[in-house]
Amino acid sequence: MTKSQQETQPLPRVKEPAGVVVSRRGALIWLLPAGIIVIAFLIAPAIWTLVLGLTNYRLTGIEAKEPQFVGLENFENALTDPAFINSIWVTILFVLGSAVFGQAVLGFIIAWSIRNLAPRVRSSIELLVILAWIIPSSVVTFLWIALLNGQEGTLNTILGIDTEWLLRYPLLSIIVFNIWRGTAFSMLLSSAALASLPPSYLQTAKLAGASNWQQLRDVVLPSIKGYLITNLLLITLWTFNDFTPFLITGGGPGGKTETVPVFIYQEALRFLELGYGSAIAAIALAINFVIAMFYLRSSRRNAAR
Amino acid sequence: MRIRRGRVALGAGALAAAMVLSACGNGDDSASDSDDSGGQTEETQAEETADEEAAAPDAIQVEIGANAVRGGKNEQTAAWIEDYIIPVCTEELAANGTNVEIVFNGRGIDDEDFKSQLALDVSSGGGPDLMNIDGIWVGEFAEAGYTAPLAELAPDATSWDGWDQIDPAVQANMSYKGERYGVPSGTDGRVLYYNKALFEEAGLPADWQPTSWEEVLEAGRTLQQALPDVTPIQINAGVAMGEATTMQGYLPLLAGAGARVYDEDNSTWNGDTEATRDVLGFYSTLFTEDLSNPDLQLLQDGRDRSFQEFAEGKIGILGEGDYFWRAVIEPTVGNFPMADRNDVVGYAKIPAKEAGAGLNGQDFVSMSGGGGYVLNPNSGNPGAAWELLACMNSKESTLALVGDVARITQRNDVNAEILSEDPMLSFVATEVLPVTAYRPGFAIYPQVSVAMQEASEEVVNGSSANDASASFGEAVADLAGPDAVTNN
């Protein structure tokens, strides 16, 4: 993750140092500890997931003791399983709604609109947004359940109505929740990006008669594009893999909020189908990989320009 | 500009530090209350054990794991273990020359979550020495090697004198393929509860005993017209309710339609049959006529919500087990106590679809189950664990568990003494248990159960009974194989 973050940020080009300080072999030795950790905790489990995905392993029953190799059956079942296809759609809507259009846009808008406020006002606003981000999930989900509860929930009490929000608008509920929850990161990153912008750019643009919108479109956005892409990459992956909505809706009603991680949890730990769950986890891993590649390529293209 | 950037970085640093700290806090908590976190905590665990050994030199630690917790789920059991079993059985075992330190590891979570937690604990070499599990999990736990026959782990168990007091049908709840795996903790029966006050307002009799499904629906329609704010009927459905859907709703209905979930004579599971369509048709009527509230079936806390609404007088008729009577609406220890329970709450046997249409040509039906304690094969000292289990199931301990709140225990000698005190439970013992049925003890049963929950949820969401039944038949064929399913 950190590696990609560095790559995506537009770094000033540095000339190659004249003499090589560390030999190739020396460099390998220095890389070894990190390499071992990556292999032990990232690559090995990923391969293990793939292997489990090829078996009928279950948490209980005879298949727990003597799992059988079933080839690609789990993968075939997954791709024809309407519940899995549904979970992919739910995840796409959840990621687009809450991360890409929600957190990233709202985070930038907040950062942009508070940038010239008095520092004290600014940090108070930032603190409020960050609070939503740092309170533990179990606590905030409890608060949101209380907020959206159909019987005497806070929202219903304020509006004076009687709506089961989590049953009538389940996906919308968790999208709004996740925007509220995660906007802080996008706001912080956008603030940092805006702060890195040399003030002379904007002053020049202003002298040339550019409106606020023109400054934003032609000066600010192109200059901080690298940051924004990094932000999109991170929040897309986080949101794709986010499990917190489960704590509010449990994936229900009728699978309407069953994102891919929730689906994996249900299959693996509720229905105890560890083999099938692993196969889907492997598919999710591949999707994550594709998303990361997509962003990395576009940021590299951006850096090359 | 520079200064400002510095401040942002500082703020972010403090934030990161706070997050790391809070993460550490969480880690400590979870390491202390379960041992499923793998190799990293092994060292600390070894240290903890060493400390405990230093405190009590020759005591063997025996851990009881149950889905029961003070101030929450199954509080009665949790209090019994902590206040009675730990002091009394520690002393009794010491008198027999076994020094034990009894530890209670209680939870208060969904049964399905508790099951996967136990399975994960045991599969990674840990878990409590005595595990409180549902009778229908015995098969899949036994097949996976998460528990073993009592005779194998603790040979002394074979000669226990308590077996004479436990009915074979109840023993079968904690047996698999003819072998005892544990000691059951009693059994239960299912009835229709109704609110006599609402019945009176709607002009229905206070002493109500329907003899067909149609009469239940009729009573619901009468309630609906007289009391528009009341949910007339609540029969559990849907996946969120878990096994509560199967036990309280689907299976009693299936028995009322004259079918068993598993036909032992033909070794086939009930699939897309007329009985299945009858069951789903009954559900369909409930929801299409607005006699039942679909939200209660879909909400995550739907069952608790149904308890609460019944206790508040907002539900007319509710299908539940005797657990509801003695643990949910019980005036003093219940989760949703009803001070006027004895006057306001009535109970009736669950009728078959029509008189004589039930299982074995019965007029009334019920389903029974029950949990119990099994030994963990990872236990360092299964002999001591068995001694504790025997102590927990002595007549005295069983009487202590029952206390003032009667329940149908595993022991006949205890039942003879206590059931007469509670009219509801003697009703279950004398009227309901004779017509009851048990679930098949196969490892695959819990998956078939999920398929039944899914079929009922389809109906909740508006599918027709025929469509839901057809997809149920396919689901069972996928699970059991096409030859092991009856479709007609």
Strand-helix topology:
The complex is a heterodimer of chains A (305) and B (488).
Chain A: H1 2-8, H2 24-52, H3 62-65, H4 73-80, H5 82-113, H6 119-134, H7 137-148, H8 154-159, H9 165-168, H10 170-195, H11 199-207, H12 212-223, H13 225-240, H14 244-249, H15 260-270, H16 274-304
Helix pairs in contact in A: 2-16, 5-10, 5-13, 6-10, 10-13, 11-12, 13-16, 15-16
Chain B: H1 2-33, H2 42-55, E1 60-66, H3 75-95, E2 100-106, H4 111-123, E3 130-134, H5 138-144, H6 150-153, H7 168-171, E4 175-176, E5 179-180, E6 182-184, E7 190-195, H8 196-201, H9 213-226, E8 231-234, H10 243-256, E9 262-263, E10 268-270, H11 274-288, H12 294-298, H13 302-311, E11 315-321, H14 322-328, H15 341-344, E12 345-348, E13 350-351, E14 364-368, E15 371-375, H16 382-392, H17 395-402, H18 412-418, H19 423-432, E16 436-438, H20 445-460, H21 465-480, E17 485-486
Parallel strand pairs in B: 1-2, 1-3, 8-11, 10-17, 14-16
Antiparallel strand pairs in B: 3-15, 4-5, 6-15, 7-11, 7-12, 9-10, 13-14
Helix pairs in contact in B: 3-16, 3-17, 10-20, 11-20, 11-21, 20-21
Structure summarized in a few sentences:
The complex is a heterodimer of chains A (305) and B (488). With 305 residues, chain A is an all-alpha fold. Helices cover 75% and strands 0% of the residues of chain A.
